Amino acid sequence: MLVLARKVNERIKIGDDIELTIVSISGDIVRIGIDAPKGLKILRNEVFDDIQRQNQEAVKEAQIQDSVQLLRNIRFPIK
């Protein structure tokens, strides 16, 4: 991990297309501006983690529903 110290209005360049600007610092809150290509998805980590969790839950639910449907389609011979 690269750790940098920056002051307000100082910038960090990532590749050719992404630039971070320190907008303000107030106590332990740092506001960061991000200039990036319009199609690039930028998410806070906690939002990303929540989306991942929801996707995993949706996959599990779909697997359960598929299993239930398979069980419903099983035909047992009558003796």
Helix fraction bin: 25-40%
Shape assignment:
rod-shaped
Q: Structural class, please?
A: alpha+beta
Please describe the biggest sheet, giving its number of strands, its sense, and whether it closes into a barrel: 3 strands, antiparallel
Tally of individual domains? 2
Number of separate helices = 1
Descriptive report:
The protein has about 80 residues and is an alpha+beta fold. It folds into 2 domains: about 1-35, no CATH class; about 45-79. It is built from 1 helix and 3 strands. A 3-stranded antiparallel sheet has the order 1-2-3, with no helix packed on it. β2 (about 20-25) and β3 (about 30-35) form a beta hairpin. The longest helix is centred in the C-terminal third of the chain and has 29 residues, at about 45-75. The mean pLDDT is about 90. It holds the Pfam family CsrA. Keywords: Bacterial flagellum biogenesis, Cytoplasm, Repressor, RNA-binding, Translation regulation. It is found in: Cytoplasm. Homodimer; the beta-strands of each monomer intercalate to form a hydrophobic core, while the alpha-helices form wings that extend away from the core. This is Translational regulator CsrA.
